[in-house]
Amino acid sequence: MASLSYQSASPASSEPPPVQADPIPSPDPLMDGSWWPNSSDLGAELPVLLPVLDHVRGPVKRLLLAVGNWTARPHLIITDGRTVSVGYAAGQSPTMIRVFCADGGTFTMRVAPPGPAPGAPNPPRTGRHEAVPGDRGR
Fold first, then answer.
1. If you write DSSP's letter for every residue of 4-65 in order, what string do you get?
2. Using one digit for the tens of pLDDT, what is the confidence trace for 76-105?
3. Domain total of the chain
4. Residue-range definition of the domain harbouring residue 91
């Protein structure tokens, strides 16, 4: 069984976002995975998450999230020369993201509250506006 596990320091970085995923090979794979967004700004978070999700069963064409407490809720994300639509449903659990793939398959991932992933070290804070070497925006 393949396993994807990524930890990123910043949603704006080119590194993959904090995602842990264990796809189960089948015609309609289930997904046991979690995503820990670094912020509540989906406009910054989703473009970094999509390439990771594409590795599960091919290109993602649509995402469905809860309306939730996101500070930005884009309806379209352009990534790798294609457009991914994003929908928001009042009835969707705020702890789930539904992923619809180009091949017609779907999978669901858990969504943790925005912030550092569990076990991620908190960078030292030296002052309100002082930059910390190695601190990538957390």
1. EEE--S-TTSSSPPSEEEEE--SSS--EEEEE--SSSBHHHHHHHHHHHHHHHHS-EEEEEE
2. 999 888 999 999 999 888 889 999 999 998
3. 1
4. 4-111
Instruction: Determine contact, residues 57/102, Cβ cutoff 8 Å.
Output: no
Dihedral, 32, 21, 53, 74 alpha carbons, nearest 10: 70
**Distance of alpha carbon 40 from alpha carbon 125, whole angstroms:** 21
Per the domain annotation, does 116 fall within a domain? no
> In which residue ranges of the chain is pLDDT below 70?
1-32, 117-138
**pLDDT reported for residue 79:** 87
